[in-house]
């Protein structure tokens, strides 16, 4: 399982992912699901991947190959030189569709699932911060003011806090706290979502990362969030009125 | 969809269910999912049903028929005269298996699901408070000290608060608050779970209900819980430390 969450507020973009993958309960490994791309001062992009790992790694390899090839032949279009974030989503979607066309049938014949999804968060100079969700078929949707966040993977445990907190006016600081609380609830309830975490923050019109860090299991700030939230829930619960006579 | 939750603590049993059923998003109705059985001073039992409605109604009809027939022939075994709560679970499980044997194949041929599950909470004089979960196959499990609550239906949104609060030492008052908070989180996040709610509380060694009530959408106490919890979460969130520099 996986839990990835991405938030788009007026002040920018916040992305958080776990690192646990599993093929059955007895086959658990750690893989990065968050990947960053930077052209300093021009564009900053984070991809968050979930679903069949061979598919999402294949998509990433396709994107990387194009970036490498474009160094020799600048006419090759890549997510680092294309004209818009919308075009980035199309390029990722095309790579996804190519991987699905190539492998889906044989993966499913083997009894596994080939589904995958990728979130794309970023901004390029001249455009606005954008957040897209690319599906297995290569089609995609964009986050809007009505739905300022996307989740992929094990989304239910961590959704209530996002529903309550996140609006377009939420500060980057609060959006970061909210995704950490959301992840904390998910970690507590689903064993197949696990530390460490990868956090990235892209402030609006900075075209760079403010945060691009791995949060390890012994991270003190995350422990403060986790314990503080536990204590707040317990205190809040105690303060609720008693409804039995 | 459905959300039912039942808790067994040392002080007794607390059960809560919603009343919304749906066959697709455009076919929503209200059905009671919580049913109580009382032999005053001897046993008190609550059943909570989820899954295919024709199956669970069929199980209930089977139980009721036996209770009616036993008035003429006391040798007929029913959930009201059988010797233990464990035997109650067997009787409910047998009725479930009979319904599944009769209808499952034809229901599934029609493209619908026949799965259903029923929670049984109660105590009879001479025994302890018991909580069982009966599956479609008629087999069942019992809540233990390690797992003092069961949920059926849309369980994820409402599970974190139960995980944090419920232990065998939890008071009936706190267990009741906890199931209401758990339901409130579920109502907010899943449209196919809806008011009104049915709440029952069976204190240990009382062999009667302390609470057996329907909570309507305009219930003031539930509104206080719901609003109080919202305010507590917001306050708790604001008080968390800021992790961005």
Automatic annotation (TrEMBL), chains A, B:
* Keywords associated with the record: Hydrolase, Protease, Proteasome
Q: A biological process (GO) annotation for this entry?
A: proteolysis involved in protein catabolic process
Q: Which Gene3D superfamilies match?
A: Glutamine Phosphoribosylpyrophosphate, subunit 1, domain 1 (3.60.20.10)
This protein's GO CC annotations: proteasome core complex
Molecular function (Gene Ontology), one example: peptidase activity
* Origin: domain of life: Bacteria
Protein name per the record: Peptidase
Species name: Sphingobium xenophagum
């Amino acid at each position: 399982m996986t839990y990835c969450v991405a938030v788009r507020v007026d002040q920018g973009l916040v992305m958080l992912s776990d690192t646990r993958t599993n093929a059955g309960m007895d086959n658990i490994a750690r893989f990065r699901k968050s990947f960053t791309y930077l052209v300093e001062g021009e564009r900053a992009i984070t991809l968050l991947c979930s679903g069949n790992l061979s598919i999402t790694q294949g998509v990433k390899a396709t994107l990387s190959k194009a970036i490498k090839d474009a160094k020799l032949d600048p006419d090759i279009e890549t997510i680092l030189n294309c004209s818009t974030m919308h075009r980035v989503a199309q390029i990722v979607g095309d790579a996804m569709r190519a991987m699905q066309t190539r492998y889906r049938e044989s993966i499913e014949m083997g009894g596994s699932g080939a589904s995958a999804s990728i979130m794309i968060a970023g901004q390029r100079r001249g455009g606005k911060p954008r957040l897209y969700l690319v599906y297995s078929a290569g089609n995609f949707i964009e986050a809007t003011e009505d739905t300022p966040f996307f989740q992929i993977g094990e989304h239910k445990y961590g959704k209530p806090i996002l529903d309550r907190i996140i609006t377009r006016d939420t500060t980057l600081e609060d959006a970061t706290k909210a995704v950490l609380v959301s992840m904390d609830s998910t970690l507590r309830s689903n064993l197949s979502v696990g530390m460490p975490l990868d956090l990235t923050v892209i402030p609006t019109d900075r075209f760079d990362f403010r945060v691009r860090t791995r949060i390890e299991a012994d991270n003190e700030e995350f422990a403060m969030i986790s314990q503080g939230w536990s204590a707040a829930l317990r205190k809040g619960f105690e303060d609720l009125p008693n409804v039995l006579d």
